[in-house]
Amino acid sequence: MLVLHRKELPPIGTWAYCLVAPERKEAVVIDAPEGAYTWASQLAQSAGCQISALLLTHGHWDHTLDAYAFAAAGIAVYAHRDDQILIENPAVMSDFAMPGMEMKPTRVTHWVEGGQSIELLGQSFAVRHVPGHCPGNVLFYDSVASRAFVGDVIFCGSVGRFDLPGGDFATLQHSIRSEVYSLPEGTVLLPGHGPETTVAAEKADNPYVRP
Ligand SMILES: [Zn+2]
Ligand SMILES: [Zn+2]
Predict the structure, then answer these.
(1) Distance from the CA of 2 to the center of ligand 1, in angstroms?
(2) What is the pLDDT of residues 3-61, one digit of tens each?
(3) Nearest ligand, CA of residue 193?
(4) Is the C or the N end of the chain the one with fewer CB within 10 Å?
(5) For the whole model, what pTM was predicted?
(6) β-strands 117-120, 123-129 pairing
(7) CA–centroid distance, residue 46 to ligand 1 (Å)
């Protein structure tokens, strides 16, 4: 049984998630806003666990600022290759970052693709590619717990920005219809910002993308 922890972190309120499997002494972190490494390390340590992986939903700096610290600690880093440049050379987005912010490059160890399953914490996580907000946005779907870590593709009652480099509304709509709305209705969606929601709730009420 996995225990889910979450913390909203600076500088713009991005969720970091941490899944802990105490009996396996293993933890996995999803996204790395500022302070995520210290938060997750303390959490893992107090549960007697080692962090085995950092999963990045996409390469925007508010999700990757702390990724270098996980990599420096020898933790496997998973991401989609379409965001390789954002993660390995974050300075390309400095026009869209905050003045003076230090964005350190991170070396990804595991490139993931849509349709793939990754084995962590003694179970599978399905990877779905959901571009439109960011070219390499992926969601990680845990069918055992019926939840998906979706990054910034969809939010409670809203959708991700599509005006940043590599963003496109038609692509975003297609990703949401084909890869998010096709998940089981009861699936809890854990986005990069704001409250959690469900597939059923967004199919019923999301004003930006109708099923
Ligand atoms: Zn983003
Ligand atoms: Zn974000």
Answers:
(1) 26
(2) 999 999 999 999 999 999 999 999 999 999 999 999 999 999 999 999 999 999 999 99
(3) 2
(4) N
(5) 0.97
(6) antiparallel
(7) 30
